[in-house]
Amino acid sequence: MKYWVSKSGNDKLIVVSDDVIYNFNPGLNQLYLFEEELRQGKIPKKLTGTPLSYIRSISSKVGSPKIQLNYGKDSELLIHAGEHKKEIFSYLKDGLSLQPKYVLEEESFFTRAKNPLIMLLITLGVVIFSYDYAKNMELGYTYEIRGRIGVLGGLSLGLAEILGSEGVLFFGTLISGISTVFIWKAFRNKGFIEKLIYKTN
What pLDDT does residue 108 have? Predict the structure, then answer.
């Protein structure tokens, strides 16, 4: 059994026994009491954890402070391990009687670039509608909002009124350029995921 203590963060106490992973966020006074019991080799009764027998795999992005416990396709638990992440992951890999299969996988380009890609697509949609609204307003058309037009519809109309057609194009070019820079960085900077596999089916 081994434990790690942090004075801040979402998981101040992480305990790994031979068959259970515990993560808890107690107050500082309770944390002190838990530490006393752990020093004596006792796991505090108030702690609840995840049996290793429930876990299909454990994964963590290299350089990230988080460890993810995967139970199935859509079931997971995220542990905020902070500065102890590397040591905890290493202990899970080599320090227990249950030895998992270790795999190092390259993170897919879509996973790395997902957020800027979504930003780019939303920007293009807003710009197309905003430009259309703005051109029509410049021709003398007026728009009256009735009922629900949605967030994107409201944003498009608002930008058209404030920026005009040329301003909308400049705004779209600026945001698209920023998104493209982040997509390019995601393409160049490869990320890796460490996995500990306990069950394959």
Answer: 83
